[in-house]
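Hi,

Apologies if this is the wrong queue. I'm a grad student, and the batch job for Xaa-Pro aminopeptidase from Thermosyntropha lipolytica DSM 11003 produced an output file that my downstream script rejects. I'm not sure whether the problem is my script or the file. Here is the sequence I used:
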Amino acid sequence: MKEKGLNAFLVSKPENIRYLSGFTGGEDAKLLILEDEQYIITDTRYREQAAREAPHFELLLDKFPYLEALNKVRRSCWDRLGIESLHLTYHEYRMLESTLDVDLFPLEYEVEELRMVKEEEELECIREAARIGDMVFEEIVSFLKPGITEKKIADRIAFLLREKGCAKEAFDVIAAAGENASLPHARPGEKAVKPGEMLILDYGGFYEGYAADMTRTVFIGSPSAYFQDAYREVLKAQKIGISVVRAGIKASKVDEAVRDYLKSSGLGDYFVHSTGHGLGLEIHEKPALSPAGDIELKENMVVTIEPGIYIPGKGGIRIEDTVIVKKDGCEIITRTDKELRIIF
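Support response: The file is valid. Your script probably expects a header line. Output copied below for reference.
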C-alpha cells in the first residue's frame, strides 16, 4: 500500500478475501486492511464462521453496505483508501464517496497478481482436483455410446466430480458433439451423439477451493480421415505449447508457438481463442496465454494449454491440460492419455 501512497485497502472480491483471510462465506463480505490493523466486515449470519476461518482479522458486524462499520474504524488515521474497482459496484462506490471522509483510489488485479504464484499447499489441492478429473474421464468413457445425449453426458460428469471428492464443478461441464463442437463454449443439450462424430469434453472441479481444468476430444465410431488428421495436428500443437512452458518465458511466446504451428498446418484460421489461462481459486485467472500476454511465467504458476480448432457446421477439436510451471519446463498434472481415441 505504501508504494501506492495508500494507508487503507478495501477488498471486495470473494476469492481475494479467501486468499488473504481464509474466510469463505458471504458474497458481500469485505476486508479492510490498514497499515497496522486488519478487519473482516460481514453480517451476523457469518459471525461464527468468520471467527473460525479468519482468526487473525478483527471482526466487525454490520448490515451491507457496512458504512457504520467503516465509520467506526475511521478513528484510525487513514484517508487514502484503495478499492477493487473491478469488483465494487458503482452504487457502493457512490455511497463510500459520500459517507466516508476519504479519497478513493481504484486498483486492479493487486491481489490477483499475488495469487498467480502458488504455495505448495495450493498446488497439492490443484493436483488432487486434476487427479479426480482423470478418474472421471476413465469412468465416463464406458458411459459413451451412439445415441446418448450431450446433456446426459454432462450431467454424469458433474455427478462423478462430486462423487469422487470435488465440492462442485469449476464451471458448467461442456459436452459438445458433432457440429456443436464448433462452439468453443457449447451448452450441452438434447442432441444425441451420432456414429463418426467427435465429442468434446471440457470440465474441472474444485477441491478445497482450487480448480483444475481438462479437455479431451474423443470420437464415437470412426471419424473421417480429415478429422483424424486434424486431431493429430491439434495434439502436436498442444505438445509444442507444453514444451516451451518454463519459468522466464513470456506468456505470449507460448501462444505464439502454438499459433504458428497451427498456421503452418493450415488450421490457423480455425483457432479462435487464446492458448490458455491461469487457474487456482478461479477457473480463469492471470496470466493469459494469449498474443497480448505480457506476463513472464514464474515457477509454480499454474496454467492451461488448450489449443482448439472450430469449423462452423462441421465440428471442432480441443485438447487441454493443466500444468505447473517449473524452472526448466512444466509438470503436467492432468494425465489422461491424449492419443486419438475412437469409442465403438
